[in-house]
Design a protein that fits this description.
By secondary structure, this protein is α/β, with parallel strands linked by helices. The chain is 31% helix and 14% strand. Strands 1, 2, 3, 4, 5, 6, 7 and 8 form an 8-stranded mixed beta sheet that branches. The two termini are 27 Å apart. The C terminus is likely disordered.
Length: 274
């Protein structure tokens, strides 16, 4: 089913795109389909190219998502659009919304833009897309521009083999640990003696809270976790080859946290000549 212009524009919700992504609630038909997400991602590419003055194939765009069951299908659609346009496309996997903005800010990543697939606090059947540039989250008028672009754009198919994976949350958690240490006087064990309770409300933060708070802080230098292996430490490829999928699901460790640089900087070279 092709999303009509009227249906597409109805997906605007303040400074985000929001819609029903899966069935399960009576009277709420799906309107944020994979086809719509694909075209909206293309609309964002057009918007970002104009905003930055860069050619599409020069754009560096990261994509992350929360824990919603509709995330994999929508992410695939978004990645198809990005690779079809020839963008340097980085899949950050499960991530938090602030981390996706920081993918633009952090010197190790320095993306031109990012897309977070999330519907925040809305029910399970909803999902959406948040867009970031170097200026922060886009405004409502920007969302309307992105959706108008999407209305003029057909669904496209890209080469998912060009998608490169990066463990952004490992980098972001490292950034947060440094901020905690600095705020509390650069102590090696700033949280010693504290009991911290985290209610993540089914959000992505629940998967990373222990990585930030559940380890002793140390001034030693070593990677933070075994799961942040080749997929996160390897620089973004200068070729079209795929980075090996060597990371495994992270599990809380009993080992002390060590304040190392957990991942290398991205080598953000275009991976397509499309």
């Amino acid at each position: 089913m092709i999303t009509s212009e009227k249906q597409m524009m109805k997906l605007a919700n303040g400074s985000d795109v929001r819609g029903v992504a899966v069935e399960g609630v009576d009277g709420e038909p799906v309107n944020l389909t994979a086809e719509a997400a694909n075209r909206i991602a293309s609309g964002f590419i057009d918007f970002l190219a104009e905003r930055t003055g860069k050619a599409k194939k020069e754009l560096r765009i990261a994509v992350g998502h929360d824990t919603r069951i509709s995330a994999p299908a929508l992410k695939k659609a978004v990645l198809e659009a990005l690779t079809a346009a020839g963008c340097v496309t980085v899949d950050c996997g499960l991530a938090s919304t602030p981390a996706m903005f920081m993918s633009i800010v952090l010197k190790e990543t320095q993306m031109d833009g990012s897309i977070m697939i999330t519907a925040s606090h809305l029910p399970f059947n909803r999902n959406g897309l948040k867009f970031f540039t170097k200026d922060g989250g886009v405004e409502h008028e920007d969302i309307l521009t992105i959706l108008r672009n999407a209305c003029r754009t057909p669904e496209v198919t890209g080469d998912l083999a060009r998608v490169q994976k990066y463990d952004l949350m490992d980098r972001y958690c490292h950034y947060l640990r440094k901020k905690i240490r600095k705020a509390l006087g650069e102590e090696n064990t700033p949280l010693r003696g504290m009991h911290v309770v985290v209610d993540a409300g089914n959000g992505a933060g629940g998967f990373f809270a222990t990585q930030i708070l559940g380890r002793r802080f140390s001034a030693a230098s070593a990677p933070t976790r075994r799961a942040a292996s080749t997929s996160s430490r390897t620089a973004i490829s200068r070729t079209t080859s795929r980075i090996p999928r060597t990371s495994r699901p992270w599990r809380p460790s009993r080992r002390p946290w060590r304040a190392a640089t957990p991942t290398s900087a991205l080598s953000l070279t275009p991976t397509s000549t499309a």
